[in-house]
Amino acid sequence: MKTALILNGPNLNLLGTREPQVYGSQTLADVQGLCEQACLANGFALDFRQSNHEGVLVDWLHEAGRLQAAGTLAGVILNAGAYTHTSIALHDAIKGTGITLIELHISNVHAREAFRHYSYISPAAKAVMVGFGVNGYALAIAGLAGMQ
Ligand code: DQA
User: Structural domain of residue 54, as residue ranges?
Assistant: First the structure.
């Protein structure tokens, strides 16, 4: 059974209390539970992580590259939070490892402030999941299964 690696960037640990009108009332632990169900349904093991630190996310993407090359990782679903709009380092890590990566956003970033309209992740991603609320995580896991 291959693993789906789900990476969450800065401030996503605040889900549930952070701008609930934008991100909903479910916590990151709730999202992890939803991902566990979706992985079970799609034949994946789940590895679910969150960090507020850009370099940690870069290190995890490098680890993902090694695991995918070894054949144990199906791919990565990345909600990079605000680093989406700033991080050439994350872009380079995705390109440099060649991993199968789905970019995810809970909110519809294109309907929000202009500074959220550009993503450094999108040009390096295989697919993008935007604006489905936290249910987007389950949809992205199903999408990753369809890519195998
Ligand atoms: C987000 C959208 C980003 O613009 C924002 O900085 C986040 C969350 C989302 O899931 O909708 O932290 O990635």
Answer: 3-146
Element (H, E) at 3: strand 3-8
CATH number, domain at 79? Answer: 3.40.50.9100
0.70 exceeded by pTM: yes
The one catalytic residue among 83, 105, 120, 137? 105
Q: Domain tally for the chain? A: 1
* Angstrom distance (rounded) from CA 134 to CA 64: 23
91 touches ligand 1 (CB under 6 Å): no
Instruction: Write the pLDDT tens digit of every residue in 62-116.
Output: 999 999 999 999 999 999 999 999 999 999 999 999 999 999 999 999 999 999 9
Whether 83 is catalytic is no
